[in-house]
Amino acid sequence: MRFASLFTVEVVNGALKVNPTEELASMAKDQQTATIKEELKKCEADLQNLNHSTEASKEASNHDRDADKRELEVRIVIMKNFLKRLLESHWEVLKPS
């Protein structure tokens, strides 16, 4: 599953608004958590590969590499924040009264 099938991201009044897609929202919380963690690992690996490839390759322009890095970094932050909120809400449900 790719990022675009997990979240919709839009700019509203200068701020990012992130919403889960219908597909993600329809999953059980445990499945949501596992799916987001899996995609997060993929993005982190892509960023690491991009960092290593930029050191080795001078073919792509710096602008393109920087744009790709920023996009991956934003995706990672979005997923980490969403995962944190998801886990906190799950913890609230599991906490004894």
Task: Provide the low-confidence segments as ranges.
Answer: none
- Tell me the strand order in the biggest sheet: 1-2
* Element-by-element helix/strand order: EEHHH
- Overall pLDDT metric: 84
Judged by helices, strands and strand pairing, the structural class is alpha+beta
End-to-end CA span? 36 Å
Give Rg in angstroms: 16 Å
Question: What do you see in this structure?
Answer:
- With 97 residues, this protein is of the alpha+beta class.
- 67% of the residues lie in helices and 12% in strands.
- It has a two-stranded antiparallel ribbon with strand order 1-2.
- A hairpin with a 2-residue loop joins strand 1 and strand 2.
- Helix 2 runs antiparallel to helix 3.
- The protein is globular and about 40 Å long.
- The mean pLDDT is 84.
